Fold this sequence. Notes:
The complex is a heterotrimer.
Chain A (H helix, E strand, L loop, with lengths): L37 E5 L9 H5 L5 E3 L5 E3 L9 H5 L5 E5 L4
Chain B lengths: L2 E6 H11 L4 E4 L6 H12 L6 E4 L3 H13 L4 E5 L1 H16 L5 E6 L13 H4 L7 E4 L3 H16 L7 E6 L7 E6 L2 H7 L17 E2 L5 H33 L6 E4 L6 E5 L4 H13 L4 E6 L1 E3 L3 H7 L5 E6 L10 H10 L7 E6 L9 H15 L8 E3 L5
Parallel strand pairs in B: 2-3, 2-4, 4-5, 5-7, 6-7, 11-12, 11-14, 14-15, 15-16
Antiparallel strand pairs in B: 1-8, 6-13, 10-12
Chain C lengths: L30 H13 L3 E4 L4 H6 L11 E2 L6 H17 L9 E7 L1 H5 L2 H10 L4 E6 L39 H6 L5 E5 L4 H13 L4 E6 L3 H4 L6 H10 L6 E4 L2 E4 L9 H5 L10 H18 L7
Parallel strand pairs in C: 1-2, 1-3, 3-4, 4-6, 5-6
Antiparallel strand pairs in C: 5-7, 7-8
Helix pairs in contact in C: 1-7, 3-5
Amino acid sequence: xxxFKLNPKPxxxxxxxxxxIPQPATSRFYxxxxxxxxRPVVDKEKCTRCGLCWVYCPDGAIRIVEDGSYDVDxxxxxxxxxxxxxxxxxxxxxxxxxxx
Amino acid sequence: xxxxxxxxxxxxxSLAAKLANVDVVAAxxxxxxxxxxxxxxxxxxDGELDxxxxxxxxxxxxxxxxxxxxxxxxRVFTATAGQGLALMHEMLFIAAGxxxxxxxxxxNRSLSPNxxxxxxxxxxxxxxxxxxxxxxxxxxxxxxxxxxxxxxxxEDERVMLPxxxxxxxxxxxxxxxxxxxLDQEEVKKFLPPRKIPSYALxxxxxxxxxxxxxxxxxxxxxxxxxEALRNSKTVIKEVWKEFGDMFGRYYDFFEPYRxxxxxxxxxxxxxxxxxxxxxxxxxxxxxxxxxxxKLRLFRPxxxxxxxxxxxNLKVLAIVDKAFSPGGLGxxxxxxxxxxxxxxxxxxxIVGFIAGLGGRDIRVDEFMVAVERAKKALMGxxxxxxxxxxxxxx
Amino acid sequence: xAEKKVFFKSLKDLxxxxxxxxxxxxxxxxxxxxxxxxxMKAVGPNCIVITPTGCLxxxxxxxxxxSWAVPWYHVAFENAAAVASGVEAGLKALMRKGKLEKKRIHxxxxxxxxxxxxxxxxxxxxxLERGHxxxxxxxxxxxxxNTGIQRSGSTPYGAWxxxxxxxxxxxxxxxxxxxxxxxxxxxxxxxxATACPAYPLDLVNKAKKAVEIxxxxxxxxxxxxxxxxxxPSNLSIxxxxxxxxxxxxxxxxxxxxxxxxxxxxxxxxxxKEYLKLQGRFAHLTDGExxxxxxxxxxxxxxxxxxxxxx
Lengths: 100, 393, 310
C-alpha cells in the first residue's frame, strides 16, 4: 500500500487546491475495526470457499487467502454479521469482543 | 486583422466566446440574455464553433454542467440573467470554491417580484459573495474584450477562479454598437487553449473532489479562496496590460472622467456611466468641479487603488442599481464606506439608489444627485446616508 | 432485440481489486456500500463517478480520507445528473478536439433516493432526455437516511420515518412509493434496470451492461438501511432478498422499451415475511398489510411474476 501523504489538519498553504484529495483510496489508512463488538470467526474446515462472505461484506473486510480460503481483515471489519448470516454452510460464527 | 464592425452587445459576447474556442456551452433561455446563447447555437450549427452545446433544463443545471465540464479540463461558457442567476446561486459558490475557470455573461436584470425583465444590478449583487471575479462592462467593446480576457484571467494558475462579465440588460445587451473585433489568429496569440490541470478528473490520475468539509479544513479552504481572489488583482492587471500592448486598448479597474481637478465625483458601474458623463459635462459647463469614476471591477474590490484615485475628492456620490432592504444602502456604497472608515482623510460619501427594474437614469437625475451630495458636504445629511433617487413620494 | 450478453458468469469472475475501498464510515451492515462495492468491481477503474450529497458522499470522503480509487466528484444534492452531463460533454469535446486522448471513460452518477426521486428528478430527466452517454445509479434506501430518516418520494406506503410519524391517527407514510424506474423508462432511453445486492450476479451484470451501452442508462438498486429500516445489521441481505421474493421489489430490465424480469419468482412469499423483520413497519395492522399485499399482487400480475404462496 502506498504511503499516506496527507495531513488531516493542513495549513491553508498546504491544503491541496479546493481541498481536493490527490491520493486515491486513502480511507485504507482509517481503520474502522475498533467499531466492532462482535468478531466473525471462520471455521476453515466447514468453509466451502464459495466466496459469498467476500461478495456481501459492506466493508471489503474479507480477505482471500493464498490457499483460496477466506479470513477476516480485523482492521476494517465492523462486525455487522452479514457474513455469518449469509454463509450457506454456517462456517462463520460471531464471537463477542472482550477486553484482554 | 482586427476590423470595425457593428454588432449587438449580446452577439459581441457570443463572438468572443467563439473566438475563445470554448469546448462546452451550457444554454438556457432567459431575457435579456437569450440572444447570446442563440448566436452560439448558430455558430455550432454552422460548424464555426466546435463545442458541445448542452441544452440544459434550468440555470441550476447550466452551472452544474459547467462545473462538471470545467472539472475535466474543458473551457466552458454560459450566460444568464436575473432569476436565472438567482437559481444558480448555490452553484456559483461551488464553481468558485472548486476553483473552476468558468466564464459567464450576466445580462443584469432585476429580481422578482414583480416579474421584471429589465435591467438593474440586483441579480449579481445578491450573489456578490460567491467568490467569483466580477467585472462590469459599459459597452459592446468592453463586453467583447472583457470576455476574451476573462478566460485568460480565470485559467491563470495563480487564480483558477470563475469570472462573471456583467452588463446591463437591454440598455447594453440589446444595443447595436461599433466595435473593433479581433480575428481568430489575433485571439490565438493572446489566448492559447486551456491547459488541462494535472488534477483534472481523469482515470489516469484519480482525485477526489468536493470531499465533505469537516470543521478541521473549512477555514483553510476559505482562506485559500481569499488568496486566489487577492492574487487575481495582479493577474487582471497583467492580462489587461498584455491585451493593451497587443491590441492597443488598455483597461484599468477604473475609468476616470474629468477627474483631474474634481471635488465631487459620481461613482458607479455599468451602462449608465454614459449618461453620467453627459451630466458631468453639463455641470462642468456651469463651472462645477465634477467628475466620474466608472468602476469596472467589483470583486476583487480595488481598495487601495480607489483610495489613491479619490485622494483629492471632497464628495463621492455613489449610484447603486441594487440595494439591501433594511441594510445600509447599495452594495458599492457600503463597500466604499467600509473602505474609508479607517482612512484619516476621506471624502463625504453619499449613496443613491437608482435605475431599478429598468427605470432609466436621466441626465437631470444625475445632476440632482450631485447637487444633493454637495448639500451633504455642507452638513445637510441624508438620513442613513443614502436615498432613493427616483422614487415617487 | 440485442443478444443477451453475460459479462460475469460467476461471482468469481469479479476482480479481486476494490475501487470503492475499506475504511469508509458507513454503518455496520450498510446495504448501500455492498451495492457500491459490487457496482465498482463490475465497472472497473476506467470511469469518473459523480455522487450528490447523501450517505455515500459523507461516508466516503471526509478529507483526507477518500474511499474512491477512481476519480470522484461531489458537487451538491440535486444535480448529479447535470454535473454528469457536463463531465460527459467536456470529455467528448476535449477528445474530439484532440486535447485529450481518445478512449471510452464511463461517466457514472451514484445517488440516493432523495437525490433521485425528489430533489434531483428534474436534473435527471433533463440529462436522460438529452441522451448523454452515462449511467445513473439510484441507491434506494427509501428515505433521507443521511439527515436522519426522513420520508422521501421513494419511501413505501405505511413506513415509519421521522417525518411520516406513526401516531394515534397517522399510520406512517400515507402514499405509495414513487416508481422512478418507470419515469426513467418513459424517457425511452436504451437501458433501465432494477437490482439489489442480495442478487449480486444479477446486479454486477446489469451494472456492466449499463455502462457498456451507448447513451443514458438508469439502474435502480434497493439498498437496505440498518438504522432507517430498524433492522439488525446482519439482516440487510436477507431482507433485500425477501423484497424480491415477495414481489415488493421485482428485478427486471427495460431494453428498447421491452421489459423482462431477470429474477423469476415462481411462488411469491406473503409481504408480511418482508415487513415483519423491519421496525419501520412494526405498527402496521393486518388490514394495512393486506392493503400492501393487494397492491403487490396487482403490480406482480402486470410484470408476470408468479402467484403468491399459500
